[in-house]
């Protein structure tokens, strides 16, 4: 049966309960054990907000009882794996560990409300009606739930374990660190290079004593089908969940992985991607080393506005016809231009195959476009530049060096000093001591110097993770790992820009290198061409 909603005034509880004060558990977690069937079902509800039975779970917020699906108001998203609470939009969800809920002397809330200890019956009543034991109304910032009795029993069965078990992937002897890498196709060699350097570095750390006596165990999952990556990722976590993820490479499924990391409160350090979720809330557990494509576009427009003194621009954004190929890139380009009050006159889709740009270019030229943000690939960029040159039209062009950079070598001379590329990292980021460390590690483990940038990214991500684990201490959990990473300031890996994170910053190097096209022989460029780092504050 389904519990009815009859909250008289305000919404009261988050699915897993919310008392007012955050109290840390003093006892050490127990070793992981096999969950009972009820506990396993309850765990799924706690983290996903969905019933294993398929029955809907609904949450109701505020005095108006606004309805949303339970998956958007999960216990785990606010209270975490340990039940100690995670700040959310100015609200501090409280300790919901079982021994705290049932403590004999009851509870006194910051607003002065007092009530006796919970038991199973009063906890159920609080979840569906928002009423504390004794009848007082619960916290109005928390939802009440429409949930079946069976699901509620299963949830409480799991709640009795929250804070009492080690987090996934953690034991007295080891810390299991996961990674997801291509295992088939043209990207498989790159994935193998990343896996090789991770194994070598973790081996080195373990030979030196590990992390406070715990060894690092790498759990590498090979993704075998690009079209099924999302399903493979979820299936892998259902089989076994690591303590944290490092140096993942999931082309085509980056946003899926970042969503899963947020859903499971699973720290993700150094994903090898240009596609990062837009907000801190979406990216709370994802710590990227390099700027994503959005930050690179922002850096390009900042450089154009400040260093090139480009004002009153009329802009065209050229992008792939399939916008899922570069998720979020078109929106990021438009926002970056609008931040400088530039007029985005048009957005023009680029076909996937061969195409004729002459008609489109004639229209752009007639419209007075004097700046183009180009989001296409190398061949598309070269087709565009050559067609524009044939029309004697040479606007300033801003593009990603990763995607279009190789077209620069064959760019027409008319674009000298007018073509600017953004890169997340360049060779000048690598310091001698960092190169020496990596070279020695690769030599000792007989690793080939192939796919160097991917290898560097994986190694730097692993170094960042290991440093955070050391600073978090022996009494480790995911919450502490995230808190430590949020305090990183100008951390030097020796191979990347210095990394800084904060509670509101999830990209270690926020900005991009801007490189201009070389000028025609014997002529001065119209703008500087040396690599310039544009920092995004």
Automatic annotation (TrEMBL):
InterPro entries: Cyt_c-like_dom, Cyt_c-like_dom_sf, Leu-bd, Peripla_BP_I. Residues 1-32 form the signal peptide. Transmembrane segments: none annotated. Keywords: Heme, Iron, Metal-binding, Signal. This is ABC transporter substrate-binding protein. PROSITE patterns: CYTC (PS51007). Pfam families: Cytochrom_C (PF00034), Peripla_BP_6 (PF13458). Residues 37-163 form the Cytochrome c domain. Belongs to the leucine-binding protein family. It comes from Desulfuromonas versatilis. It comes from the Bacteria.
């Amino acid at each position: 049966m389904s519990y009815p909603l009859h909250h008289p005034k305000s919404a009261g509880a988050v699915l897993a309960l919310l008392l007012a004060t955050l109290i840390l558990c003093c006892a050490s977690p127990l070793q992981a054990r096999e969950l009972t069937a009820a506990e396993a079902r309850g765990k799924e509800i706690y983290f996903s907000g969905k019933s294993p039975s398929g029955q809907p779970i609904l949450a109701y917020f505020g005095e108006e009882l606004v309805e949303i699906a339970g998956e958007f108001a999960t216990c785990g998203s606010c209270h975490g794996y340990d039940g100690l609470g995670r700040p959310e939009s100015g609200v501090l969800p409280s300790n919901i560990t079982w021994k705290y809920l049932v403590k004999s002397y009851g509870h006194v809330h910051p607003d002065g409300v007092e009530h006796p200890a919970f038991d199973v019956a009063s906890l159920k009543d609080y979840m569906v009606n928002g009423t504390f034991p004794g009848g007082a109304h619960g916290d109005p910032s928390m939802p009440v739930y429409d949930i079946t009795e069976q699901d509620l029993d299963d949830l409480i069965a799991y709640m009795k374990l929250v804070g009492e078990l080690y987090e996934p992937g953690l034991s007295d002897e080891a810390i299991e660190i996961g990674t997801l890498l291509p295992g088939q196709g043209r990207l498989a060699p790159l994935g193998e290079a990343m896996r090789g350097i991770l194994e070598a570095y973790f081996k080195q750390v373990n030979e030196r004593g590990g992390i406070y006596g715990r060894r690092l165990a790498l759990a590498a999952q090979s993704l075998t089908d690009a079209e099924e990556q999302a399903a493979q990722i979820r299936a892998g976590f259902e089989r076994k969940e690591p303590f944290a993820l490092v140096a993942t490479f999931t082309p085509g499924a980056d946003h899926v992985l970042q969503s899963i990391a947020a859903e499971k409160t699973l720290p993700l350090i150094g994903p090898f991607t240009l596609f990062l979720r837009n907000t801190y809330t979406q990216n709370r557990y994802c710590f990227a080393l390099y700027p994503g494509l959005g930050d690179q576009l922002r850096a390009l427009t900042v450089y154009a506005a400040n260093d090139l003194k480009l004002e009153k621009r009329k802009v065209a954004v050229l992008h792939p016809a399939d916008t899922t190929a570069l998720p979020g890139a078109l929106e990021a380009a438009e926002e970056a231009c609008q931040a400088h009050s530039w007029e985005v006159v048009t957005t023009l889709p680029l076909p996937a195959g061969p195409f004729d740009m002459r008609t489109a270019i004639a229209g752009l030229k007639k419209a007075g476009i004097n700046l183009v943000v180009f989001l296409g690939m190398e061949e598309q960029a070269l087709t565009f530049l050559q067609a524009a040159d044939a029309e004697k039209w040479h606007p300033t062009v801003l593009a990603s060096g990763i995607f279009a950079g190789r077209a620069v070598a064959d760019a027409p001379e008319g674009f000298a000093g007018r073509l600017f590329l953004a890169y997340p990292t360049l060779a000048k980021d690598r310091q001698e001591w960092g190169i020496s460390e990596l070279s020695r590690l690769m030599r000792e483990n007989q690793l080939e110097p192939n796919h160097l940038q991917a290898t560097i990214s994986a190694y730097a991500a692993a170094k960042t993770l290991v440093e955070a684990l050391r600073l978090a201490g022996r009494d480790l959990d995911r919450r502490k790992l995230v808190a430590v990473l949020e305090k990183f300031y100008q951390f030097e890996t020796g191979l990347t820009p210095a990394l800084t994170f904060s509670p509101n910053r999830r990209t270690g190097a926020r900005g991009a290198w801007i490189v201009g096209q070389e000028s025609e022989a014997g002529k001065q460029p119209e703008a500087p061409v040396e690599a310039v780092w544009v920092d995004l504050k």
